[in-house]
Amino acid sequence: MSAAIRIRQVGKQYGNVRALDGVDFEIRQGEFFGLLGPNGAGKSTLINIIAGLTRADEGRVTVMGHNVVSAYRRARQSIGVVPQELVFDPFFTVREVLRIQSGYFGLGRENDAWIDELLSELHLEDKADTNMRALSGGMKRRVLIAQALVHKPAVVVLDEPTAGVDIKIRNLLWAFIQGLHERGQTIVLTTHYLEEAESMCERIAILNHGRVVAIDTKQQLLNSHLARSFTVSLTCKHTVRGIPDALAGKVTVHQDNRLEMQLDKETDTIIGVLDLLREAGIEVVDVHTERADLEDVFLKLTYGSDNVL
Ligand SMILES: Nc1ncnc2c1ncn2[C@@H]1O[C@H](COP(=O)(O)OP(=O)(O)O)[C@@H](O)[C@H]1O
Ligand SMILES: [Mg+2]
Question: Is the CB of 34 under 6 A from ligand 1?
Fold first, then answer.
């Protein structure tokens, strides 16, 4: 069995909203997987279905081979979910919250050593006896992560874990999550911070209007969706008065001496363009190539949706 999570033809309807529509893919064991999409795309709905918190109308989902509906307890044992919303009972201390969660999985005081380890790794050791209501948002978020990991699940799912978290805590969280991944844990992350997904996730699915519009490695997404053209910005020594015919239609002139071009990857080369410009008496003093990034792919695939990013 190689799939950590298997999602088969999953559909979910909320009134008139088709939150998920025929979602079908697998997440492999040990993979660092990114689930991206604009607000309202269906990410949280899918995660709640995987976690057994919401029922799909159609299709089925297994976690480590266990059906999330018919083998709920076993599926639940295999997964730790960090929800998007910060929900807590404010009267318990951090340690109590983690012990209660351990108890839910049949673990008693023998789990205390692991709880201490989690508190230490998440820089919460001095908050162990503090009531949840006295914690900042970033601290609560870290307790949620500890809570998700208390039973050492094979798969960890984090729904927007860094939303509203300051940069210092965000970096701490990324280092922690990266550490889990290096120890072989399957990680599923939803985020709308594309740089995060770009730097960490091995494979990415882009969800839009409840459908998977792309699923691949970051490099393959870039190759297949942005392969046709690339952008080059040129700074010229003098004001540009005319563009060679061979480049007509490809060039935009900005601020007299700045040119921007869309070049076709198959047929154009930067050297070829520079030669044409030189022949036309245009001297180029600086060349800058735009790096296509995941954001371009994301915008291209979700463009025209009425979703707000
Ligand atoms: N409990 C619910 N009741 C009604 N509509 C819902 C509910 N949960 C989600 N939706 C709707 O389903 C769609 C997907 O939402 P969600 O899964 O939260 O998206 P995301 O997490 O990608 O922002 C949205 O249109 C949202 O309004
Ligand atoms: Mg969400």
Answer: no
Question: In this predicted model, what pLDDT tens digit does every residue of 41-89 receive, in sequence order?
Answer: 999 999 999 999 999 999 999 999 999 999 999 999 999 999 888 888 8
Q: How far is the CA of 21 from the centre of ligand 2 (A)?
A: 16
The whole-number pLDDT of residue 15 equals 96
SS (H, E, C) the chain: CCEEEEEEEEEEEECCEEEEEEEEEEEECCCEEEEECCCCCCHHHHHHHHCCCCCCCEEEEEECCEECCCCHHHHHHCEEEECCCCCCCCCCEHHHHHHHHHHHCCCCHHHHHHHHHHHHHCCCHHHCCCEHHHCCHHHHHHHHHHHHHCCCCCEEEEECCCCCCCHHHHHHHHHHHHHHHHCCCEEEEEECCHHHHHHHCCEEEEEECCEEEEEEEHHHHHHHHCCCEEEEEEEECCCCCCCCHHHCCCEEEECCCEEEEEEECCCCCHHHHHHHHHHCCCCEEEEEECCCCHHHHHHHHHCCCCCCC
Q: Which ligand is nearest to the CA of 83?
A: 2
Higher pLDDT, 119 or 233: 119
CA dist., res. 123 & res. 126, Å (int): 8
What is the CATH number assigned to the segment(s) 3-224? Answer: 3.40.50.300
Instruction: Share the mean pLDDT of the chain.
Output: 89
- 229-291 topology per CATH: Alpha-Beta Plaits (3.30.70)
pLDDT exceeds cutoff 60 at 187 = yes
- Domain extents in the chain: 3-224, 229-291
CB of 299 sitting under 6 A from ligand 1 = no
Q: Is the CB of 302 under 6 A from ligand 1?
A: no
